[in-house]
Amino acid sequence: MSKLRILYVASEINPFLQTSKVATFLRSLPQAMQERGMEIRILVPRFGLINERKNRLHEVVRLSGINISVGEEEKPLIIKVASIPNAKLQVYFIDNEDYFQRKYVFHDKQQRFYEDNDERAIFFCKGVIETVKKLGWAPDIVHCNDWMTSLIPMYLKTTYKNEPLFKETKSVFGIYTEGFSHTFGDDLLNKVKMVDIDDTILAPLNSKDFSGFIKMGIAYADRVVQGSEVSADLSQLIGDFSKNQKFEISFEEEQQAHEELYGMYTSLAG
């Protein structure tokens, strides 16, 4: 049997950026799977807090240069890469001057939620898939983590469903952190759309808020993973909306979480 290929997608990973426990978990999980014989790729946004010189990021010219459409606009995609110290793992960074050069993540200096966080998430999700296409690397499983990655399972089952690289790809959607109270504008659905995507497909996103993004991820992922730390309200939303088998993991029981996810990956890919 050939090596299982797993793509991890998240908004943060240690040691480059940490705003929650997710960054630490996403640092240990890929390495644990690599040590079990799996082939790993990791993609995250290049938020402005990440020091390029300190972390030795450099642009991958052969992967850069694609334009990603977000609504009526097209934005250039820049791909950078760095290695995780003391691990044989590389991290690819999705970058764009308009979306990711700020010195904050989702809120500005005054703790105001960025109005274009929806566009940043859309650009990131589309950019991830296009980058994997350029790599020519066919993932068996794409493990998406939290709201910013939630559109990827839907894109894989619609616009990219006939793409040879993703023909056998399964997706996992993990929900670990609490969201935001912001409601996006009425143009959100049009910005999300691509080929083969209509309003019916985007129905879970009609609320144009955090719960809408979570519902999108749940609706199209093949498996749902829930962190034990999520609130009762979010847990209820996940339970109400999830038709697939749901796995609950705890960051505090890291070794056990790794074992459970390893079993889930092998079962899902089989």
Widest sheet: strand ordering: 3-6-7-2-1-8-9-10-11
Question: What would CATH call the architecture?
Answer: 3-Layer(aba) Sandwich
Secondary-structure element order, N to C? EHEHEEEEEHHEHEHHEHEH
Q: Major beta sheet, specifics?
A: 9 strands, mixed
Average pLDDT metric: 94
Radius of gyration: 17 Å
Class, according to the CATH hierarchy? Alpha Beta
Approximate strand percentage: 15-25%
CATH fold-level label: Rossmann fold
Low-confidence stretches: none
The CATH homologous superfamily is called Glycogen Phosphorylase B
State the helical fraction. Answer: 25-40%
What is the terminal separation in angstroms? Answer: 10 Å
Q: Given the structure, what is the number of helices?
A: 9
Count the strands? 11
Q: What's the number of structural domains?
A: 1
Structural class: alpha/beta
- The backbone outline, from C-alpha atoms, is globular
State the gist of this model.
This protein is of the alpha/beta class.
Q: Would you write up a description of this structure?
A:
The structure is a single chain. This protein is of the alpha/beta class. The chain has one domain: Glycogen Phosphorylase B (Rossmann fold). The protein is built from nine helices and eleven strands. It has helices at 21-35, 52-55, 97-100, 117-135, 152-157, 188-192, 210-220, 232-241, 254-269, and strands at residues 5-9, 39-45, 58-59, 67-70, 73-76, 78-83, 90-95, 141-145, 170-175, 223-227, 246-249. Helix 7 crosses helix 8. The model has no long low-confidence stretch (mean pLDDT 94).
